[in-house]
Design goal:
Keywords: Plasmid. This protein is mainly α. The chain contains six helices and no strands. The N and C termini lie far apart (57 Å). Helix 2 crosses helix 3. It folds into two domains: 1-87, no CATH class; 88-135.
């Protein structure tokens, strides 16, 4: 299977790039895929260059004319249709339901995270007290 220099499969590269092009935060995509933020941006640029080199070069030249060494994320997102195969538009009502479900999952995850932080804080305080007592 072809790999990028970052040793990520082309399938994963596409998943990462498409998520970012469709609006996901680069930092979140990097964290989910356990890669560095800079690596995530590199993957995005490599993907766009690979799937549509002419379009990427045009956007890259435009960025260079604005004294940027690579295209802005906003430039790539504005032209995402040049890099992502377009599916049929989804039903707005279905999208609304999916957004509500995702918001509910996110709220639940945030509550779970706070719970875990509370437990961790208590354990750290107990550990500090135990260390102090045994000194």
């Amino acid at each position: 299977m072809d790999k990028t220099e970052t040793n990520i499969s082309l399938e994963t590269e596409e998943k990462i790039a498409c998520a970012i092009l469709q609006g996901a935060k680069t930092a979140d995509v990097a964290a989910v895929n356990r890669i560095k933020y800079a690596t995530c941006r590199e993957i995005l640029h490599k993907y766009c260059r690979r799937v549509n080199p002419e379009a990427f070069d045009r956007i890259n030249i435009d960025a260079a004319n604005k004294d940027c060494h690579s295209p802005y994320l906003e430039q790539l997102r504005a032209q995402k249709h040049l890099f992502i195969p377009q599916a049929e538009p989804r039903d707005p009502e279905q999208l609304r339901r999916e957004i509500e479900q995702q918001n509910a999952r996110l709220t639940s995850a945030q509550i779970a995270l706070r719970s875990e932080r509370t437990i961790l804080s208590q354990l750290e305080a107990e550990f500090a007290a135990a260390i102090k007592k045994h000194q």
